[in-house]
Amino acid sequence: MPEIALTAWQILLVKVLVILTIVPVGALAGGYAEHKVMAHLQHRLGPMYPGGFHGWATTLADGLKFLYKEDIVPDAADRKVFSLAPAAIFVPVLMIYLVIPIDRNLIVEDLDVGIFYLLAVGSISTIGVLMAGWSSANKYALIGALRSAAQLIAYELPIVLSAAVVAMYAGSLSVIDIVEKQNFPFAIWPPGIGLIAFLVFTTGAVAEMTRVPFDMPVAESEIITGPFTEYTGMRYIFSHMFAEMGHMVAFAGIGVTLFLGGYKPIIPWSPLEVVPGVIWFGLKFALMIFLFLWIRPTFPRVREDQLQKFAWKFLIPVSLVLVLAMGAWVLYV
Amino acid sequence: MAVDERKLSDARKLSDARKSGFGLGLLKGMAVTLKHLFKHNTVIQYPDEKQDLPPRTRGVIALKEENCTVCMLCARECPDWCIYIDSHKETLPPKRAGGRPRKRNVLDRFAIDYSLCMYCGICVEVCPYDALFWSREFEYSEYDIRQLTHEKERLADWMTTVLPPPELEQGADLPGQPAAAAASATVEATGARPANLTSSAVEARPEQAATAPREGSFTTEPARPASSLPPQEQKRETSPEDAQPAPGLDTEVKAAQGLPGATTQPEPEVTLGAGRAAESVTQPADTAQVGSDATSAPEGQPPQKTPSVAAEPAVTAAEPVSQAGLRNLGGQAPVARPSTEPAGVAEDPEAAYRRVLQEQASRGSSPQVAEARAKVARVKAERGMARTATPAPATAPVQSAPQATPTEPEPSGAPEAQGPAPEPGPVAPTADEDRTDG
Ligand code: SF4
Ligand code: SF4
Prior knowledge:
The structure holds two protein chains of two kinds. Chain A is mostly helical. Helices cover 67% and strands 0% of the residues of chain A. By secondary structure, chain B is mainly alpha-helical. In chain B, helix 6 packs across helix 12, helix 7 (231-237) packs across helix 8 (251-258) and helix 13 runs antiparallel to helix 14 (367-382). Chain B is extended, with a radius of gyration of 27 Å. The termini of chain B are far apart. The chains are: A mainly alpha, B mainly alpha. One iron/sulfur cluster (SF4) is lined by residues 78-80, 82-83, 112, 117-123 of chain B. One iron/sulfur cluster (SF4) binds next to helix 3 of chain B.
């Protein structure tokens, strides 16, 4: 095989291009999975016609439809901020993908501060949401944006603390190190602590994605689409659809990495090592996505005050206790 | 009491659930949705698959026009006032010299506006003369709301989709024997009517037209929808002097022979009528292939549309005044008379079932209709009743446009119904515009 000499910049370019294609494709596939899984959970069939076979092209057709829509900016809107907001929402989602290890060597950059980066970048989107809500000159958008910001602050903490639990256990912030340190009963070990941390993380992730049951910011029955009320066409799908789907895919990846043993086989048994890590990662990833999709048609939306109460009075104390427990475990076990 | 207990048990369940532990309710909910993921999905992909609708489905209302006496009960009872009936009175000359002239209602327009109808079924229930029936067809949406007013031709076309009545329940009283014989004879006779009619129409009509025109000179319009003659009237019209070879035959048979022309439609529906007529002629008369079960009854339509030029004079011919015409008829009709052989050409019920099923399948009936008819055939075979073959489904497209209603209608209390010919007004979009807007 001839050596292909690539400069660091060229490699970076290729990686970025790959991410840039993976995310929209993943979002489309995720959207389709969402349609179908939710439909079957609710005893329906979901889309059946677009594309012929079980409606596989539904989200593609949806996306194309949005492409053709007129791009409308309200008169009273703050034009510049309004048009920049979708980018501010979507680009951070792309950046999350940089540090998710799909296999031992399949990672864009193994940063030393991997988890820190993940959590930091994952929260930037909220600024975009605030921009969108504020610049739309629409009361629904503003209410939605403020709800979104409040929710982010409330649920970012449990996520950060549960990730900190994992980092303490692994003794490193690098995602590769974390995966390598995890042992067989993933997500459970150390006993109890791991499982609860996983549940806390999942709950926080669902809230961060503003998905049901924590979708007050976009609660369509009261505030239309929240911050995205005034958006149309491509801006709408980038700021809402792609961002939500991209977030879901990213959080599924983070969950697999931090709690489910990433690219490692599900059982530490040497014959299973033959199967490439990508496949293990894919399996766990699908499981994680399914969990998110499963939650959505099952639960009703919680009220705004319940949502805040749940975070501050329950999730955050629990995760603080978890941090304490993990500290004790690391010190004394 | 029961309510209280239920309330109590609900409360108990609730408190149990609260006690059962934090988050268990959430898990239960997840289990419920997960169960549904693996359950067999019962969704019916509608345009591709169709549901097997129950036989009594309220799809569309069909009008058996010749049964309607213009009694107006349906229009009055309709809660939505969406039945429009126009009629006029005709004076018929007295039957015998010195008698009293008689009056008769003739249906000019019968329309149901399905954009108003709420499918309550009151009109079907209330009709004393079995002129309205439910059909299971439900796919008659239109681009223009005005097209949802079905005029009587279209309502009559729906008759072909009306299912035969359900089988008698097991252990139900069988119809009395003489009555059964008469009934089956009627069925056969009506079944054979097409053959009868067409032959007599072909042979007898010309002279008829020549001899009998305008003899009665009563005040009928030239192109009157004469098929709206109510059966009772028909019965009265046929004078007792008519030589009736088969005493068991009742009104419909008489109507068939005595008033063949009386059942002619004014509209020259060439394709529909001619097609069906041709089909009916080819059927052997003795097996009475063309008719139907007594009530599914599209038998009225096809023959009525046979292209007999002498249609209108024939009405007069039926009047006793024109004795020559009558004798003429009397001589002609028995030739094509159906063999009213007594019921009981015994056939194995299962064989009958299968045969009818195949027969229906080859005619392109829907599976449900085919099965229903086959079941009827089986029951009839079991009870030794002669069976008339079942009608072919309507192959002709149903006209959707309201027909121009004939003749000056008497104002009959119906509000100004939608104009028969819809002109696109400034407000209402045409069908085309609708589509492009889509
Ligand atoms: S079914 Fe329709 S037409 Fe008949 S009475 Fe009810 S509303 Fe009137
Ligand atoms: S359809 Fe029945 S109820 Fe209505 S006018 Fe005719 S006979 Fe009377």
